[in-house]
Amino acid sequence: MSVLESSALLVLCSGGAMTLVPERSLLPLPVSTLIAHPAAACPPTGYEPLQSPVFERHTIVTTARLLPFPPELVLQIVQSPSQLIRLNPLVVDCRLVPPPPTAPSSSTATAEGGQAAAAEEEEREEEWEIQDRTHLLGLPVSWSYTATFLPTPSGVLVRPRAGAGVRLENVWTVLPAEPPVGEAREGKLNGWSSVQERAEIWAPLGLMGWVRGTLQKAHEGLMDALEKRLEELAGKVREGS
């Protein structure tokens, strides 16, 4: 989410990798029944949403910001899953999921270029479990889900494991940039960066409008949180110089 902002829609379904944990003492019936037992109306684990254009829609939400900080400083946050996850105000906890033991590959398999590249990508990919807390219909609700993070030369690729037939893929890109007209070239700490988050969304027809609107608002909040965190880091760098 992004994984991080899109997590609000995971309360709709307990299928897949998500586990819903309601605040039981505060959830009266019948709302508690709907929240605590959504599996009856949700697809089983491993479900793949229908690919027919009648049932599924695809869209892209792009959020961009020009920031007065050098790319290497921005990448310190963007390529750190724990820091990037905690930019989301809904997050209350996160942890790295230990990778499963891998079976030794044969010499024939490792000799194949494509398979070797895939194996290298798997080694660099990290899976994180994230716990969020928010309010649904005015009631406190918490839930957990997982997301994989794969660093790229200029950012990170994030694949949240959403539910309710929603699939997400977020790409963060950080590149050097020229300052706006009238602004100092050095910015607030030796340079400027163009930061872009591109989120691809696949969702059921009835959910797409709500999902897109939620993501657009949340992504702007993430950029604000990123800029605030960069201000803090830049201040520490200046103090230490």
Total number of strands: 8
Helix/strand-derived category reads alpha+beta
**Which band does the percent of strand residues land in?**
25-35%
**Helix and strand pattern:** HEHEHHEHHEEEEEH
The H-level CATH homologous superfamily, spelled out, is: START domain
Distance between the termini: 36 Å
Percent range of helical residues = 25-40%
The name CATH uses for the topology is Alpha-D-Glucose-1,6-Bisphosphate, Chain A, domain 4
Which geometry do the CA atoms define?
globular
The top-level CATH class is: Alpha Beta
Largest β sheet strand count, sense and barrel closure: 8 strands, antiparallel
Mean pLDDT: 75
Total discrete domains: 1
Task: Give the CATH architecture.
Answer: 2-Layer Sandwich
Number of distinct helices: 7
Low-confidence stretches: 1-51
What is the CA-based Rg, rounded?
Answer: 20 Å
Signal peptide: 1-19
Biased composition (Low complexity): 104-118
Domain DUF7053: 59-231
Organism: Calocera viscosa (strain TUFC12733)
